[in-house]
Specification:
Elements (H helix, E strand, L loop, with lengths): L1 E6 L2 E4 L4 E9 L6 E7 L6 E6 L6 E3 L7 E6 L4 E6 L8 E8 L13 E2 L3 E6 L1
Parallel strand pairs: 2-11
Antiparallel strand pairs: 1-3, 3-8, 4-5, 4-9, 5-6, 7-8, 9-10, 9-11
């Protein structure tokens, strides 16, 4: 089992920045890959970013590529999402997730464990 706890959400003006954190416990952190997803009201949960177990490979949704950066610190059992140049359309609940699989990393069904989410609101 893996337990995930997100933090760092909040209210920010358009153009601003936030850094989300996701602390993991349970299985050895370096044994699984991590992803960030988000869900806006009335919409399906969508993929944001993925990082492999070592941090050597990352993958982003087109909508955030160049603005968001995913990283991990295996010594601290934590994955981060640095969000810059935020837009109102980035407003959503952001979730981190963990997976033992290496394929289909943009699909929610690939991930076995999920955090409770943290709200990010970007005002215009």
């Amino acid at each position: 089992q893996v337990q995930l706890v997100e933090s760092g959400g909040g209210l920010v003006q358009a153009g601003g920045s936030l850094r989300l954190s996701c602390a993991a416990s349970g299985r050895p952190f370096s044994s699984y890959a991590m992803g960030w997803f988000r869900q806006a009201p009335g919409k399906e949960r969508e993929f944001v970013a993925h990082i492999n177990w070592s941090g050597s490979n990352t993958y982003y949704a087109d909508s955030v590529n160049g603005r968001f950066t995913i990283s991990r610190d295996n010594a601290k059992n934590t994955v981060y999402l640095q969000m810059n140049r935020l837009k109102p359309e980035d407003t959503a609940v952001y979730y981190c997730a963990a997976t033992l699989y290496v394929d289909y990393v943009s699909q929610t069904t690939t991930y076995d464990w999920w955090g409770q989410g943290t709200q990010v609101t970007v005002s215009s």
